[in-house]
Design goal:
heterodimer, A: two-stranded antiparallel sheet, 10 helices, 5 strands, B: alpha+beta, 8 helices, 12 strands, 37% helix
Amino acid sequence: MNIYLPIAEMSVSVALFLGLGWAVGFLSGLFGVGGGFLLTPLLIFMGIPSAVAVGTGSMHIVAASVSGAVAQYQRNNVDIKMGLVLVAGGVIGSAIGVGIVRILREIGQFDLFVALSYVTFLGAVGALMLIEAAGTIRRARAGQPVSTRKRGQHSWVHGLPFKMRFHRSKLYISAVPPTLIGAFVGFMAAVMGIGGGFVMVPAMIYLLRVPTNVVVGTSLFQIVFVMAVTTLLQAVQNKTVDVVLALLLIIGGVIGAQFGAAAGGRLKGEQLRFLLAALVLLMCLRIGWDLVARPDELYSIAPVLGVLQ
Amino acid sequence: MRHKSGMMGITRTSVTLCVLMIALSAAPNFCLLTEAQAAPPTLETTSEARDKKQMGPRRPFAPSRPVPPLQTPQAGPVERIEADVSTRSVEVTTDFTGHEILVFGSIDNSQQPSDESGYYDVAVVVEGVPEPTVVRRKSDVAGIWINTSSIIFASVPSYYAIASTRPIDEIAGPNVLNKHAIGFAHIKMTPEPGYQWSFGEEELAAFKAAVIRLKRQEGLYVMEAKDGVTFIGRSLFRSTIALPANVPVGPLVARVFLFRDGEVISAHIARVTLERAGLERLLHNFAFRYPFSYGIFAVMLAVLFGLLASAYFRRGVR
């Protein structure tokens, strides 16, 4: 059965995209990640225009993260004040990102920018995770305890102005670093269609020294709000949010996530991280290959933007 | 199935023809005028050409034409082609997977002895709305393939289908085909001002060829099989044109040309509207006319589905 997508303006197989949603949902349930970094490139590989893939991806992430955010909030694992600072930064970053998407589409370099961003971030994050997971596995084999953060450590982060008290995180730090982190994540959300949890969580732990029990809840809180704003901005400025496509992916995704979470329970944390790192690097290589391999077709055509609308 | 629809086509043609003939006999000038006015730029020349042929003597064709005994070439009846489409309006709904339209018509005062005589040639061109199109070319920059040069063509038909009685290059010479934009190679592509002098002839030709190649790959430029237009009897003809699932929504213009000895001797225009309908129309209009409300709607839908799904599965698991 086929369905015509109103924004992507193409007829696609319902089963194929439900299946894609399921597969991404399964992996995100398995690894406990948002899955945006998998979904957006896969949509582009399937022939969905890059900009529509990114715009629709942000709507998908809202649906995928909202229940987790609510559950974390109910368990009091969200630092609301920290979350709001991150959201404020995120909205600024997202607005800048959406504007840049528009400019890049007009000059025909959006696809390149997305591909380069993905290669850079996936490459860096994948490599770091691989090293970290390999280290943890080695230490666990050697019988050493897995180290956690030490309290009361100070870094350059604590010398900045505009200090705020974050009660839930038991922190008294400048509002500048969380705003910047939020802005960076919001920018990535707009140009890459990802939630950015895999950047925000380590940044909060290592730079801000937020306690691990509130990190996940607070980052989910930020992701839901920033992705909601990003969805709205993409819909208004770029008109690239396809609700029909998003619904197919969401329906497939929520079912896949249940299976993924069940499968994830049978694997160890560091094994999961190792697999995830491998997956991230594989994705990075796949996108990178398209950049350096000589394309079969050197030409591309597109309608001139700003004329139709 | 195909045969049946053909029969239906014929009955419909004769009905349409009767109506058209009455209309024509009542006010022939009116008909011509409206056509010329409504025609896209390429068609004005067509109407002009036809008018000229009808007014002036048709000497260029006279020698090779078998002349009926009682008529001199100068006073001979003027052939005129008339055509219509099976579906005047096609609706694009969420289950749209393409559509086939039948372009049919007849030749008034046909002088061909039979349908297989090859006396006339007919070409049918169905075109979508022309739109400014940017073509980009990648080249290797420090090991990475990047779009480095681009050109904007002022108006490229979003969709272009052609069917003819014979391959068009056998029907007429390049000048005639260029004049009426018949055939992929003869589509008019003019660079936007500012791009006119930035490329040489060869580069420009490569850009044009790329548009045609890519549009054909997308299934938007279609050439029907070599007997795309078939005659039924002395004057009736028919042709089926497939609209693919990804055909850009908008009005389509079907131009029908009658050839004799490599010249266009008559032409006719029919129109097909291609409109979004149902849920498809609703969502598209919503997204483009009320983008802010659409964005809010999208977010609410995502939140709703996210919460519903987790609530459902929590109940299912526990």
